[in-house]
Amino acid sequence: MLVSGLSAAFGALALPIAAAKSLWSDSPGNYSSIITTAFPLGNGRLGAMPIGSYDKEIVNLNVDSLWRGGPFESPTYSGGNPNISKAGALPGIREWIFQNGTGNVSALLGEFPYYGSYQVLANLTIDMGGLSNVNGYRRNLDLESAVYSDHFSTGDNYIEREAFCSYPDNVCVYRLGSNFSLPAITFGLENQLTSPTPNVSCHGNSISLCGQTYPSIGMIYNARVTVVVPGAQNPSDLCSSSTVKIPEGEKEVFLVFAAETNYDASNGNTEASFSFKGENPYMSVLKTATDAAKKSYSALKSSHVKDFKEVFGKFTLTLPDPNGSADQPTTELLSSYTQPGDPYVENLLLDFGRYLFISSSRPGSLPPNLQGLWTESYSPAWSGDYHANINLQMNHWAVDQTGLGDLTEPLWTYMAETWMPRGAETAELLYGTSEGWVTHDEMNTFGHTAMKNVAQWADYPATNAWMSHHVWDHYDYSQDVSWYRQTGYPILKGAAQFWLSQLVQDEYFKDGTLVVNPCNSPEHGPTTFGCTHYQQLIWEVFDHVLRGWEASGDDDTSFKDAISAKFSTLDPGIHIGWWGQIQEWKLDIDVKNDTHRHLSNLYGWYPGYAISSVHGFNKTITDAVETTLYSRGTGVEDSNTGWGKVWRSACWGLLNNTDEAYSELSLAIQNNFADNGLDMYGGTPPFQIDANFGLVGAMISMLVRDLDRASADAGKVQSVLLGPAIPAAWGGGSVEGLRLRGGGVVSFHWDDDGVVDSCRVDTSERGSGSQLEFFVSGGKAIDCS
Ligand code: FUC
């Protein structure tokens, strides 16, 4: 392997290297706080959280499409869109704002009835009666294979349990084994939170839970557990009072769990009257469970492990373990983690972030929502929806760079099927354009694309532009032209068309530039014009249209000409204000030392590139970015969010400021990450998965600076900085399989001071044809060929 080769070249490493690849604990989780203590499993669509109780085990179950609301609550549901156009109000709104500097969009606000919510599916209960003399308990989640296990002894009896959620077989599997004899076991399915209560019944060796979120019209969901006693002549009827009972004396029992709903996003369009409805899932669930239950446990497990390992193994970070943390339960490491940090834990959380993405985003699933797909609640915070003024974006930050780009299909399908059809209506009804599509920050699974009737956080229309950045990134890293043509470009083009129709001459400064009016910076400040964040985003969208023109296969040259024309007079949203900051608005009204959690004016620094591209990576710019970051605070920001800190960390990383990057990263872990490794919004529940994924992005930005570049630079040599901000605490580590823009893959090792000392690049998949040059921190060139 390359990295061992690299390590060998540098002799014995000073510190023990311990790959951090398991979450584990010597005690069970706690049912009253599942979300902070259980280890999550998932196959993209299904989620399972075993709590680990010795004798009365509970496994919290989820299926990603189970939502209340939308057309499953009311036939009049319209995605929030009004029934008559409100676009006539726009000229007046614009005029007011250009005269006064600020204004409001109250004339465009909508209703949002039937928005709905994601919700828990069920609990699987596994009751072994009362066990006494329990000893030697341990539970473990192996992140490389996605197999959970626990074991303990009761007297002479040694009991081990294993669980995983298999993508190839579309089921979760749970096995109990004993060296001697298992006690009598009662399996059940329940959901006591949902109203109306689902119906639970059993047939033979299966339990079936059937529910509907509202009487007659609601979403239909079905879950099935089929219990298998290997080798035994399965008695035809193990049912008793809706449970399956296995008598004492077996050595091995396993079950498969399958679930589906009748949600079908491909029916989220005009032709299907936005019904989002598909088939009753009962027969399909029955088939999935029956097919899986015919297989042996080892066959189910080996295909799952092979599948998961292949994806997980595409990227490896190896940090040192200076404190011998590998010997301590990770639940204890996480609960006692403090600054300045522990490389073992940071490595673990990067692995866990990738693990969570693989477990919540697989072709055919929905993309990860605010909680991935794991909730124990009937009404999770923010409906467990798709916020897209940072959160959904952060969920996808480092996916392509860490080899998981093939798992992004759910995101594109979700946008194409639920946002674009309703969003085209919203563009027409609120903005008066028949070109393109738009949506506003908070989305459910039923195409809620209009504004809400509440404050401005839900009324942010730049989601289409920001998500187009992800479209471009996926193309840039994968170099998959046919994907770009068929899937990516239509999303990007629709966003570009929308913004082409909305740009107006700046009538306030009268500086000849094109600006957005009205706009608001995410969750911060007034409704105004020329908001930095929008201008940077639109600049990047237009830049990507032009750069990818050949690849797009588009022959609509009038569209291209319109983009080129407006691109040249577009205000790119980079103004340095009176105290040296990157302004958040075109009006220089930023308040110093405002520790607001969103870094919207630094979008074009990270994760975007407008700031570094328009003016180059020069000192004026880096000073302004630094001033802005310091002003936003180096400690706890306004809501103590995990995502706020990892965003700051990523920005500092690109700025070569190792101390601040590491400090924000470690502060996030200290304040926001629970004992099971999941991120808690302000330090305590609710769980919010964005920082789990954002932490991966922040760590990658400390390892590499491989910036996107303006179309004007296409074809020029691409400079990649290896190790812009590697802390000395990570000294002697290495990375393998880091994806580069243009399709390259790089692996490298760094010395005890965090300076890269060895690298190899594989450019065999490189499609852009441009040359690469590599540098290390301090500016020295390094040969990676
Ligand atoms: C964004 C943030 C909030 C929260 C919410 C789910 O809008 O500003 O802090 O994370 O998403």
- The number of helical elements comes to 19
Task: Tell me the β content.
Answer: 15-25%
Number of strands: 32
Structural class: alpha+beta
Task: Provide an overview of this structure.
GO terms for molecular function: alpha-L-fucosidase activity. Residues 721-763 form the Alpha fucosidase A-like C-terminal domain. The structure is a single chain. By secondary structure, the chain is an alpha+beta fold. Among the domains are: 29-67 and 120-312, putative glycoside hydrolase family protein from bacillus halodurans (Beta-galactosidase, Chain A, domain 5), CATH 2.70.98; 78-112 and 361-632, Alpha/alpha barrel (Glycosyltransferase). It contains 19 helices and 32 strands. The strands form eight sheets. It has a nine-stranded antiparallel sheet with strand order 1-8-9-10-11-18-15-14-13. It has a seven-stranded antiparallel sheet with strand order 2-3-4-7-12-17-16. β10 (157-166) and β11 (171-178) form a beta hairpin. The model is unreliable at 1-14 (pLDDT under 50). Bound molecules: alpha-L-fucopyranose (FUC). Alpha-L-fucopyranose is lined by residues 370, 382, 387, 389-391, 457, 523, 597, 639, 641, 688.
